[in-house]
Write a structure and sequence with these properties.
It contains 14 helices and 16 strands. By secondary structure, it is of the alpha/beta class. Strands 2, 3, 4, 5, 10, 14, 15 and 16 form an 8-stranded mixed β-sheet that branches. Strands 1, 6, 7, 8 and 9 form a 5-stranded antiparallel β-sheet that branches. Strand 7 and strand 8 form a beta hairpin. Helix 5 packs across helix 6, helix 10 crosses helix 11 and helix 13 runs antiparallel to helix 14. The chain is globular, with a radius of gyration of 21 Å. The N and C termini lie far apart (about 50 Å).
Length: about 375
C-alpha cells in the first residue's frame, strides 16, 4: 500500500467517504505524494505520450498559430506566452523554433510563463528550453493567479483532462454524488453512493432520461479556469488555445480513466502512482467563459473542432510532406506519425481544438477555412 493510499484510508476511516473530486485532487496533486508532484509521467518509458511527443509537426503547427494570433493582437511587445501543463517542454520548444524562423520579432517579444505542478517536469522543461534564445528567462507558476497582467497568448494541451471532476449517479428517483469509500476488507478503495445532489441545470435533458446507475461528470476546476482566462483576456487582450480529448456538449457516462505504463488500469488502485484523466466538456468551458461576468464582456469562444482539421488548416499535412522529402530515410516514420495526429480513427477526431479570444478579435487561426481558399486536407499525401 502506497503512502498516499494509507493516507486516504485513514482519512476515510476518520471522516467517511470523500468525493471523487477530493480523491482526484489528492491522487494527482497532493504536495507530498500526488502523481504530478512525484512522477515523470510523459514519455515512452513512462505512462503515456502526448501529441507533441508523437511528431514535431504538432508543436510547429502551434507555433504558426501563436505567430498568427500575435499578428491579430497588433504585435504587442512584450507579450506573455503562458502554457498550462507544458509536459516535457516539447510543444513549446518546437513552437519557439518555428516562431524563430517565421516571426523573429515575436521571439524577442515573448515572455514565457509556465504553469506547472510537477517539480520533475519543470526541470525537464527547463532543459528542453535551454538551447533556445529567449529575451527573458522563463518563469514557473503553480497557478494562473501569480502570472502577471499583460497581453497574453495561452496554451493548454492535455491539461483540462487532468483537473478534478465531480460525479453524479442516478439512484432510484433522484441523483446522488458518487464518492470513494472503503471496500469490505477495510483497505481497498471503492466507489460508493453519497448524499443527494443534483447535476447542473445544463444536464436537464440527459438527466431526465437517465437510467439507474448512469453517471454524469462535471469539472468545477476546469470551468473556473476557463472563466479566469476569459476575464484575463478581456482585460488585457489575447487568445487561448485549448487542445484536449472530449465532447462538444453535455452527455452522460463515465469517462474517468487510469493509465499506467501505457495500459489501462483501475482508477482507485495505486493512487499517486497512476495517471488519471477524463473527457473534457467543451460546451461547459464555453459557458464558463461567457458566464464570467462583466469582466469578460466581449470575449468570444471558437470550436471545438477536430484536432485533425485544426492541424490541417495550419499546414500540418504540407509540413509532413516537406519533412519527408528532406529526410527520405525517415519519410515513412514522419508521415505515419503525422497521420496519427490527423486521422479520424486515431487522434484526429477524439482530440479537439477550442479557443477563447479577447474582445474585437476575429476567429483565431485554424477555426475558419484557409484564407487561401484551398480545401481543408486532413492527411499528408504520402501513405
Amino acid at each position: 500500500m502506497s503512502p498516499l493510499h494509507e493516507s486516504l484510508v485513514a482519512r476515510i476511516r476518520a471522516s467517511g467517504p470523500i468525493s471523487v473530486e477530493a480523491f482526484l485532487e489528492a491522487a494527482l496533486y497532493d504536495r507530498d505524494h500526488g502523481y504530478y508532484r512525484t512522477q515523470e509521467a510523459i514519455g515512452a518509458g513512462s505512462d503515456f505520450i502526448t501529441a507533441p511527443e508523437v511528431s514535431q509537426v504538432f508543436g510547429e503547427a502551434v507555433g504558426v498559430w501563436i505567430a498568427a494570433a500575435w499578428q491579430a493582437l497588433a504585435v504587442p511587445d512584450p507579450v506573455l506566452m503562458v502554457e498550462f501543463g507544458p509536459g516535457r517542454g516539447t510543444l513549446l520548444a518546437d513552437a519557439l523554433r518555428t516562431i524563430g524562423r517565421v516571426r523573429p520579432a515575436l521571439g524577442a517579444a515573448l515572455r514565457l510563463h509556465l504553469v506547472e505542478a510537477s517539480p520533475q517536469l519543470a526541470a525537464t522543461q527547463a532543459r528542453a528550453l535551454a538551447g533556445i534564445p529567449l529575451a527573458a528567462a522563463p518563469v514557473w507558476h503553480e497557478r494562473l493567479d501569480s502570472v502577471p497582467a499583460g497581453p497574453m497568448i495561452a496554451l493548454a494541451n492535455e491539461f483540462f483532462d487532468a483537473l478534478p471532476i465531480r460525479q453524479f449517479v442516478r439512484a432510484g428517483d433522484g441523483w446522488r454524488e458518487r464518492r470513494i469509500g472503503l471496500a469490505a476488507d477495510g483497505q481497498a478503495l471503492a466507489f460508493v453512493t453519497g448524499p443527494r445532489a443534483e447535476p447542473p441545470a445544463r444536464f436537464a435533458d440527459v438527466a431526465g432520461e437517465a437510467a439507474e446507475g448512469v453517471i454524469i461528470e462535471t469539472c468545477p476546476a476546469g470551468e473556473a479556469l476557463a472563466a479566469a482566462l476569459a476575464a484575463r483576456l478581456a482585460e488585457s487582450c489575447g487568445a487561448a488555445l485549448i487542445i484536449d480529448y472530449g465532447h462538444a456538449g453535455p452527455g452522460h457516462g463515465e469517462t474517468l480513466q487510469a493509465v499506467r505504463r501505457h495500459r489501462f488500469a483501475c482508477p482507485l488502485e495505486r493512487p499517486g502512482e497512476t495517471d488519471l484523466s477524463h473527457h473534457v466538456d467543451f460546451q461547459a468551458l464555453a459557458a464558463a467563459a461567457h458566464g464570467a461576468g462583466p469582466q469578460a464582456a466581449g470575449v468570444t469562444t471558437h470550436g471545438p473542432i477536430p484536432q485533425g482539421l485544426f492541424l490541417a488548416r495550419l499546414g500540418a499535412g504540407e509540413r509532413a510532406e516537406a519533412l519527408a522529402a528532406a529526410e527520405p530515410a525517415r519519410a515513412d516514420a514522419i508521415v505515419s506519425a503525422v497521420r496519427r495526429l490527423l486521422h479520424p480513427g486515431r487522434m484526429g477526431l477524439l482530440f479537439k481544438a477550442f479557443a477563447i479570444a479577447g474582445p474585437g478579435l476575429d476567429p483565431p487561426p485554424g477555426f475558419a477555412r484557409s484564407v487561401r481558399g484551398q480545401p481543408d486536407r486532413a492527411q499528408p499525401k504520402k501513405s
